Amino acid sequence: MNPHLKQLIDLSIVDKEIDAFEPQIEEANASYEAAIAKKESIDKDIENLSNEIKEEELKKSKNELHLSELSQKLEDNSKKSKEVKTEREMKSLQLEEEIAKEQVTFANEEIERLEKIIDNKNEQIEAAKTALAEIEANLESVKADVDEKLKVINEERQKVFVEKEKLLSTVNQKGLAFYQKIRRWAKNTTVVKVEEQACMGCNMLISDKVYADVIKGEDITNCPHCGRILYVETAEQ
Ligand SMILES: [Zn+2]
């Protein structure tokens, strides 16, 4: 086999190995990123709940203000009732008092309802804080675990990089430029096998003439359909 072709086949294998580290790195990082995302989501929940509580507190204090106005009104009414002269005035005062008392009941009920909502939201915040503390306690060990995995991956990757450097120092420059040009679009299928006279890159059949050239392996042969570099597996590999 043409030694330049052999080098390009080896280079394509090494490049494939290098690319295979990417999903491993992503997978290792995923668990830490998931923990961070969960933490951020709980932080947001707590913030939202706190804002909602502020709104309910505001409604509650409006009701409390209304209550104090109503009690003032009832007090004034009872003073006035001592000075009324006519039946009509008396009835009017009684009606006002009735309405004010109804409003007091309503305001008290409203305050009670709002307090329940506030209590409920505070309980939710407490639960969220507990969950948050758990995540934060685990975060460091998750990070250490990820770092350890990445360290192992990087050591392995470093070995493959060294292998690639070695290959690059021996590979024919023209062949390398040619390989890199195809690799830009073909990625890990830049150099592909021919099986049953078909290019394993584009799956198209190649002519008897091209197939014969690939089998001879004297030159670097491209797929006439897609342009990938072709080879057939031989005993020497
Ligand atoms: Zn092809």
TrEMBL record:
Residues 60-87 are annotated as: Disordered. InterPro entries: Oxidative_Scav/Glycosyltrans, Zf-RING_7. Gene3D superfamilies: 1.10.287.1490. Residues 198-230 form the C4-type zinc ribbon domain. It comes from the Bacteria. PANTHER family: PHOSPHOLIPASE C-BETA-2-RELATED, SCAVENGER RECEPTOR CLASS A MEMBER 3. This is C4-type zinc ribbon domain-containing protein.
